[in-house]
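Researcher: We plan to redesign the surface later, but first we want a full-length starting point. Tokens attached.
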């Protein structure tokens, strides 16, 4: 039987200046695409983060009232490592994010505030690669991001946003989905990988609750394995993959 060679991934577009990354929890972007974000900020592009929750339900041994502020601090520190200074939290409840108009409105408002050309989110499908079940939070956020990217440009969907001074923004050109099982594009991770490792390591309390493995060994092994695997479809260069959807 002839072995099918996966299609090579195209380089991500670079003719843009502002991006907005929207995820469910602190650490989602660090696991998913921070090596790419480091390369973009190095090139002078602006990237802002919006997190739906503070990850307050993420550590079994910590009460949410203590966990949320801790994970917020870890997220801000992790973002700073890859050149991101703007980190916002929408204060939806960790673990029980509901897809619906309230979530779409909050994300559309963020799009209008930051006026990005590129919006980034994580896998919104039911599984990770058909092997591991995805969480309801990731599914809800990913789907809401896809919808809100369009909502942000329509003044009649959430007219209260215009009344609040947030004018419609029709400038979103793409939504890039990290962690997709059907990627189309990639970003060279060579220069950003070490900072991606340091960025994820800022989530030390979360990682120590997640695994008994040495945190640096765990983080470097996880991220390096991912970018090397993607690199097989990107000319042999370590890379971060995205499914790029045009608007």
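Model: Full-length starting sequence:
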């Amino acid at each position: 039987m002839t072995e099918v060679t996966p299609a090579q991934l195209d380089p991500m577009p670079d003719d843009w200046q502002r991006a907005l990354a929207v995820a469910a929890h602190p650490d989602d972007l660090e696991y998913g695409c921070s090596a790419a974000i480091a390369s973009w900020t190095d090139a002078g592009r602006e990237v802002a983060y919006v997190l739906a929750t503070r990850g307050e339900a993420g550590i079994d041994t910590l009460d949410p009232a203590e966990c949320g502020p801790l994970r917020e601090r870890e997220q801000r520190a992790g973002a700073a490592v890859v050149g991101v200074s703007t980190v916002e939290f929408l204060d939806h409840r960790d673990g029980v994010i509901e897809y619906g108009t309230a979530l779409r409105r909050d994300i559309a408002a963020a799009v209008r505030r930051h006026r990005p050309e590129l919006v980034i989110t994580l896998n919104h499908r039911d599984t990770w690669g058909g092997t591991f079940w995805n969480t309801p939070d990731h599914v809800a956020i990913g789907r809401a991001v896809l919808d809100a990217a369009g909502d942000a440009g329509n003044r009649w969907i959430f007219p209260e946003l215009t009344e609040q001074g947030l004018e419609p923004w029709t400038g979103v050109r793409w939504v890039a989905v990290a962690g997709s099982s059907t990627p189309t594009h990639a970003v060279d991770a060579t220069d950003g990988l070490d900072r991606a490792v340091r960025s994820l390591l800022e989530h030390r309390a979360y990682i120590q609750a997640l695994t008994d493995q040495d945190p640096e060994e765990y983080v470097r092994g996880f991220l390096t394995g991912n970018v090397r695997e993607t690199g097989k479809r990107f000319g042999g260069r370590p890379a971060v993959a995205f499914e790029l959807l045009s608007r």
